[in-house]
Amino acid sequence: MLGNLLNEDQRDCLQEITNVAMGQAGDRLARLLDVFVVLSIPHVSALKPTDIAMALQSLNRQSDEAVFGVCQGFIGGGLAGETMLIFNDTDYNDLARLLKYDSNPDEKARYELLMDTANVLNGACLKGLAEQLDIHFSFGPPMLLGQHCNITDLLQSTKMRWKQALVVEINYAIENHRINCDLLLVIAENSVPGLVEKLNYLLD
Q1: Is 63 within 8 Å of 151 (Cβ atoms)?
Q2: CA-CA distance, 182 to 175, in Å (whole number)?
Q3: Among 98, 116, 86, which residue's Cα sits nearest to residue 174?
Q4: Spatial separation of the C-alpha atoms in residues 112 and 201, rounded to whole Å
Q5: pLDDT recorded at residue 153
Q6: pLDDT by residue (tens digit) across 127-145?
């Protein structure tokens, strides 16, 4: 449900440009780690903060599965929002080996692993999006949302201050490794008019 936020043409346009941007992010991760990254098709929806948990569960996750994530705000060109990289069923040791960290990483190393992965995916995705919209984003500091907590607890920890937002979600998985994450691109409702203007420009 997109309500009155976007029409179908605008939704398709947003889905296409985020598909390109997230594909670039996946390609960057694949080249960095020398692996094959499997991507889902982006899904665009209008969600309340409490709905995001349901959106993640729709990707065949269990609501009580231990997850952890990294959140990073962005602003620029009249748009503001945040990216949320939610790790599902990810083996720290597997991730450490791919990023050439010591095996059996301690808590500090695990924190760095999450941040490194988030920097690659979030940075490349937002860079690709900004290029297509012809704007420049400034970024807030990445924040660790929680470790080994369920999705509901994790979302509550973000203390989201919006009532509704456009959310683009995509799943990244690394073939033959126990590494799986969902990237949520959350665009605050007060930024939607500016986004619509840019989408209409691309559609013309």
Answers
A1: yes
A2: 15
A3: 98
A4: 40
A5: 57
A6: 999 999 999 999 888 887 7
